[in-house]
Input
Amino acid sequence: MDMQKYLELFVSEANEHIQAAGTDASRLAAGLIPLETLNSLFRHFHSIKGMAASMGFEEIASLSHAVEDLFDRLRKGGDPPGQLHDLLMEALDSTSAMVVWASRGEARGAITIDAKPIIQRIRDVMPPALKPASPTRDRAAAAPVSPAPRSASTGAAVAAPSHYECLVSIDPKTDFPGARAALVLKRLERVGEVVSTTPGREALQSPDFTGEILVALRSERTESAIRATIADLLDVRRFELRPAAAAGTAASRAEPADAAESAHSTVRIPTATLDHFLDSIAEMITRRGILTGALKMRDYHAARQTLGKLSESIDDLRKKVMLIRLMPFEHISARLTRSVRDLCRRTGKRVSLRITGGEVALDRSVLEEILDPLNHILRNAVDHGIELPAERELMGKPPDGTVHIEVTRSGDHVVIAVADDGKGMDKEAIRRAALAGGFATEAELAAMDEKQVFLLTTIPGFSTATRVTDVSGRGVGMDIVRTRIEALHGHIAISSRRGAGTRLDMTLPITVAVIDAFVVECGGGLFAVPAGSVAGVELVEPGRIRRTLAGCFLASRDTGEPDTEVSYTPLVRLDEAFGTPPAAMAASLDGGGSEPVQVLAYQTNGTRGALAVDRIRERREVVVKPLGSPLERLRRYSGAALLDDGSVALILDLVNLSRHQELTNR
Amino acid sequence: MTSSGTLSVLIVDDALFMRSMIRDILTNTGRFEVIGEAANGREAVKKYQELKPELVTMDIVMPELDGIEATREILRADPQAVIVMCSALGQEALVIESIAAGARDFIVKPFTPEKVIRVVDNLARR
Output
């Protein structure tokens, strides 16, 4: 290829990118770095890298690659190094000089600019790479319902699906063997159901992927039809297809092991449900017709009525579809039982696992996400919590330990409790370790109740730093469990008694998609308060609001009965979120105002509080949209709700809101 | 098929440099005709609807709307769209995500005529 021709284009475009990056760089010097600037710098150096590589300018490509990596990690949340601005300016200077060298064309000679030192300095201060694409993006990528293989769900008498084992071998010399394998999997999904893969799908992205993957496929198609599906794919070195050893064993071996995996990507729907959908849709079509007719006749009254009916049909259909996402907890029971069995074998402990409430249903993605934390908790319980049979007998306990997983539904939440009858956690040891490790001061420890002390074990680094794994009765990794649960907008609570056992309570929302909420206005912002947690709504006279050094409190109403004590509820001021409180409410809250304040009292997960707002707009069901990165790190908000007029309301996470208020008050 | 029996192509990449290179490679074969170009994902979706090309080459990292989102939007409107991702080294995870979104194949930069032609010819055959 004639590279000369592209030289001019390369030089002019590279210089454009360098110029633009220079402008972006000036925003770095100002201190606060906007995400858009990081994205922009990432893209500029990404482009320069690509063009330089195409032109064969290795040095320019290397330097650009290093800067691209740096900004990629920064935009994903990495900590900016101290001399970021200086580093960037130097990199830009070197890149610019190298482009000038390149522009000389045939007359350029060997490159005299040495970029190695600056590249090394960039790599030295590079923040660590974070986890790949967040779950929110992945969820958006996967369609919630993908069509099940053609006749798998019609229930009609068709040839029973067969189970196949496919050995796929991708030429390892190809650019992206993992992506080639992903193409094969996508094709196979067209003709059947990919029950499981060995290694799992995450391996495709790993640099260690060997190019070989074993796929367990369930399909009604013939062998030749399946082979034909992938026949035209490039770089597939080998594709072997054979019926699985025994349809039963391969499937049952693969299925329960990856029931959670396949639960995430495909859904099996009873045909009756599909019929319900069709009925709902038929109804909607009819009503739409009536609406159209009414509008033509300008009968706006009838039109409004029909629109109302049409809205009902739409809501009804939506509810039906949402229900499909729900799956009973017992879907993962088999895996949990197997985990415990394996753990017992490895540790010599004897533990029986009891699961109650398996019929309680959760959103399938939530179910998928808690599998890891649950396994982790079980590992801790068996490994560290429950004593060896001999020990237990000495203590007068039955030689077999018990772990009880209890799943209950409480409003729009599910509570999963894991309790063991092992040795429990040593409060004092945890306190001492926290003090010694610098995780809490004497004063803070003194103010903590039992539950808060146990939660100390979930601080990242606590177990390893303090080495209290056995004494605390809990192994490492509790911080990860907590993070995962909180990422699902759930909460975790620990209670324990020395010698008797430990209990973990995890509260999780049932559906992540739609919630019943009060849409409120405050300080110019819109917020959504989950209705399930709202205990009451009141207009409160300013007299009932007490301002103290510890914060604002709402006094309970005077019922007029003698001798009833006044109780105080912590009052949370949403206006502080946006910093510009409107006159009336602030005046009442800060003293001196006489306007009543709109208050919502809430109770959730053991936390009580009251929210002061400007006004309540309405109560309605809202579709929950995840905030995505980086806003999802704002723990006070559990998502965003899109309203009909296009505006966005931030959904409040009441427990975290209360906690935050508590901390700011202190 | 365009009137001269060639396959129509829409090239999407934010770098004019890359668009020129891909355009030249494809046109030189005599089997493809570039009927449009777009410099970001949003333009790509618009141009696709206007021109209905038989093949799209799609860069991944672009301002406004990235290649993966653009792929999703194009496929939502036309599930038969044939989209080839053009990716830089080190972006395998993004390519795998593109495949999940419906991309038919991919080419990894830096491009050589052989690499590009091998993939597009294979797609053209079907």
